[in-house]
Amino acid sequence: MPLPATVIPDGDNYRYTYGVMLTSNSTLQNGDPFVICDFTGLIPGSNDQPAEFAFAAMNEGGNIGRTVPNDNPATPNLVWTYTGDTPLIGQIGLGNFSALSTNPESNVSTDFVSRTHVEDPNGEIREEDHITHTKAPSGTDLLTPPPPTPPVDTPSGVPEPSTILLLAAGLPLMMGARFMRSRRKEAVA
Predict the structure, then answer these.
(1) Mean pLDDT of 17-27
(2) What is the pLDDT of residue 131?
(3) 2 contacts: CB under 8 Å, gap ≥ 6
(4) What proportion of the chain, given as a percentage, has pLDDT over 70?
(5) Which side of the chain, N or C, has fewer Cβ within a 10 Å radius?
(6) Has residue 150 got a pLDDT over 60?
(7) What's the chain's average pLDDT?
(8) Which residues contact 93 (CB under 8 A, 6 or more apart)?
(9) How many CB atoms lie within 10 A of CB 33?
């Protein structure tokens, strides 16, 4: 899980540093990644991470397992993958992970997606995927909802299908009632 990100000026740019903690019931195994989606203004090669982690920047690939993060395919994702041979177990800090952005600190958040492993009650180890939020460089529009789609109005004079079915079911009853009334009038006259 990410700790609150820090942002400090670094020359003409801004260094975003993410502290990451492993939760108490989790294990980090070789190949387990975590992703910070939609990191705008990324300066290639500016990443920094602990020795047992590999870094990649890719525009797509933030969805781990069944997670569905907000992920703009035109904006890079920061992907760090654990490459160590020894699993990391329990509540420990994984270290600081950082990258430079041309964009300053903002109140915009982005999705943080990760994979760890947990032991279930039967003693089986299974993958567990997580999604939460963290700070992102300005310029992202993840929290700005798209403009609402205008409602589609049914043109006046065009009944809905259910209305047509009700009319079709009631029409024979109305015809029968009218027929009975006309027979009564004939009988009275």
Answers:
(1) 89
(2) 86
(3) 18, 19, 20, 21, 36, 112, 132, 134
(4) 77
(5) C
(6) no
(7) 81
(8) 19, 20, 21, 22
(9) 17
Locate the domains of the chain by residue range.
6-135, 159-189
Whole-structure pTM value = 0.68
More confident of the two residues 73 and 68: 73
Of residues 105 and 16, more confidently modeled: 16
Q: Is the pLDDT of residue 66 over 90?
A: no
Q: Which CATH architecture has domain 6-135?
A: Sandwich (2.60)
User: Which distant-in-sequence residues (6+ apart) come within 8 Å of 114 by Cβ?
Assistant: 1, 32, 33, 34, 35, 64, 129, 130
pLDDT-based confidence at 158, cuts 50/70/90? low
CA angle 178, 181, 186 (to 5 degrees): 125
> Cα–Cα distance between 52 and 99 in angstroms, integer?
17
**Distance in Å from the first CA to the final CA of the chain:** 90
* 169-186 burial: b if 16+ Cβ within 10 Å, else e: eeeeeeeeeeeeeeeeee
Q: Measuring CA to CA, which residue among 121, 99, 107, 140 is closest to residue 13? A: 99
